[in-house]
Amino acid sequence: MARSLVDLLTTHASHQPDRTAYRFLVTGDCGGEIQEISYGRLAGRARAVAAWLQECGLTGTRAMLLYPPGLEFITGYLGCLSAGVVAVPGVPPQGRAQNHRALTRMRRLIADADAKVILGGREVIDALTGMAEQLPELADITCVATEDIPDGLAASWREPDLTADSVAFLQYTSGSTSAPKGVVVTHGNLLDNERIITERMGHTPDIIEEYGRELIVSWLPMYHDMGLIGPVLNTLYLGVTATLFSPLHFLQRPDRWLEAVSRYRPHSSGGPNFAYELCLKHATPELVDELDLTSWKVAFNGAEPVRPATLRRFTETFAPAGFRREAFYPCYGLAESTVMVTGGRVDTPPSLLRRRGHRTARGRGGRGGGRLRPARPGRDPRDRRPRTSRGTPRGRGRRNLGGRRERRQGLLAQCPRHPRDLPRHPRRPRGPLPAHR
């Protein structure tokens, strides 16, 4: 039984070394430059990075990851896990030398995470070199471009002694409601959340084979929990193929997302509600005529409030291209719970419940007045029983999708600085689930 994603990477590299793990659309266009990395190559690069970290005596310390969108982030992240180094994904500072807010956030992140090394792409490392005046903290931190680490180091890699309670990485909250906080995520947390994502989104062995192992398309930021733990790490967990591209390329031309779904025909792809709105804003009859969205079975929608009107308009607009309302999958997650907390059932349309004091969604054409709730297994979505302050029907306890492993190790500020000293049974966050992450 796998103890970590490192074990799963080793298994995939052994059993299917030539299988494409990740495909990256460099320009965001299906017809543009494409970079691919196989499971065998991915394992080799991760071990080379890990061996470099081990030779530098950094096992057990923290490494900040500052990469532009691309495959190098994935090899750097897995290199940290393979070395027993705690990864700390962050936003690269490119083009932000005069951005006081960005510099302040990075300064706080460096201090809070107590990072000993920064891994990044060449351009990022070069940019950091010129920021010594704005970030004097860099003077005591080693910075390395992982592209410059030779493949030959992989031969000297030593497999780390990882357990379910070993810390995998620090995941910082978005900072939307308070200052960003580091959440300690263990290898056990990761595996358990990947199991939940797999089950809830219907990534069964039969589906994987039906789709030829081409399962996911994503433009989501890899340093963010939704983009990392969902598309990137679930791909590794299952040993399938994902097609990725930059969020900047999506924002420049939202139709690139739909074109990638049409071209690579994945089972699952998604993003926040605004992403679907952007697609609607740029939709044209010509675009719809060129698309084939019939393979898209899970269009997850989370990270911000889910708008009923968006789901209705998106379905109406792209139904001629084969999109089905049943594909929409409203879901909720948060960094403090790794990512996935709850979601609906595959092939079940979202249920819109009446909100007390407002007209029904049907009476207002689905434009508002209701709250979207994912239908839960075994529960009729029309259930209107009174709900407690924690959002569950009276007489029924909260459903914990994660089980024991979904108890986070806690916030970084509450935890000792060395992984072995972390508490084993921290408290879960309590209270009702908010409307957004």
Question: Helix/strand/pairing class, anyone?
Answer: alpha/beta
Count of discrete structural domains? 2
CATH topology of the largest domain, anyone? Rossmann fold
Q: Quick check: average pLDDT? A: 80
CATH class category label of the largest domain: Alpha Beta
- Our count of helices gives 13
Separation of the first and last Cα atoms: 33 Å
For the sheet with most strands, the description reads: 4 strands, mixed
Order of helices and strands: HEEHEHEHEHEEEHHEHEHHEHHEHEEEE
- Quickly give the CATH architecture of the largest domain: 3-Layer(aba) Sandwich
Indicate the percent of residues in helices. Answer: 25-40%
Indicate the topology.
Blueprint: H1 5-15, E1 20-25, E2 34-38, H2 39-55, E3 62-66, H3 71-83, E4 86-89, H4 100-113, E5 117-120, H5 122-129, E6 142-145, E7 167-172, E8 182-186, H6 187-200, H7 205-210, E9 214-218, H8 225-238, E10 241-245, H9 247-252, H10 255-264, E11 268-271, H11 273-281, H12 285-290, E12 298-301, H13 308-318, E13 328-333, E14 340-343, E15 351-354, E16 370-373
Parallel strand pairs: 1-10, 3-4, 3-5, 5-6, 9-10, 11-12, 12-13
Antiparallel strand pairs: 1-2, 7-8, 13-14, 15-16
Helix pairs in contact: 1-2, 2-3, 6-8, 11-13
Question: Can you describe this structure?
Answer:
- The chain is α/β, with parallel strands linked by helices.
- It has two domains: 142 residues, Rossmann fold, CATH 3.40.50; 193 residues, Rossmann fold (3-Layer(aba) Sandwich).
- It has 13 helices and 16 strands.
- The chain has a four-stranded mixed sheet, sandwiched between helices. A four-stranded parallel sheet has the order 4-3-5-6.
- β12, α13 and β13 form a beta-alpha-beta unit.
- α2 packs across α3 and α6 crosses α8.
- It is globular, with a radius of gyration of 22 Å.
- The C terminus is likely disordered.
